[in-house]
Amino acid sequence: MNRSPSKEGHGSAQKKNAHIKKAYNKKTGPRKRFGIKPVSLAVLLLALGVVGTSLWNLWQLQRQVEGRLSYLRTEKAALVQKQEQLQQEIRWLNDPAYVEQLARTQLGLVRRGEIPISPKK
């Protein structure tokens, strides 16, 4: 690994030249730094505006759907409770003892041989 000083100097000069060659384009001269053209900036801003508007609309739609879903869940719970009440009423109406009780209390019916007693008004 014993290099002579003249070879080391030559190697670093090649690196500098390579760097200069990379930064130089034969057709256009020295490379320009990356710059954003006004048209590109306008297109980018327009795209960001469209995306932002779409995201805003999606967010609002999601809030509406969540509100509607909450309302429907509440309504479903109320309907399930009503269904249970109606099923219980069906079971009662299929019970002969309950039907007899309704006939006696609401319609004032009596069995054969019974004497109806009613309070004075």
From TrEMBL:
<dbReference type="InterPro" id="IPR007060">
    <property type="entry name" value="FtsL/DivIC"/>
</dbReference>
<keyword id="KW-0812">Transmembrane</keyword>
<feature type="region of interest" description="Disordered">
    <location>
        <begin position="1"/>
        <end position="32"/>
    </location>
</feature>
<dbReference type="Pfam" id="PF04977">
    <property type="entry name" value="DivIC"/>
</dbReference>
<keyword id="KW-0472">Membrane</keyword>
<feature type="transmembrane region" description="Helical">
    <location>
        <begin position="39"/>
        <end position="59"/>
    </location>
</feature>
<feature type="compositionally biased region" description="Basic residues">
    <location>
        <begin position="16"/>
        <end position="32"/>
    </location>
</feature>
<keyword id="KW-1133">Transmembrane helix</keyword>
<feature type="compositionally biased region" description="Basic and acidic residues">
    <location>
        <begin position="1"/>
        <end position="10"/>
    </location>
</feature>
<protein>
    <submittedName>
        <fullName>Septum formation initiator</fullName>
    </submittedName>
</protein>
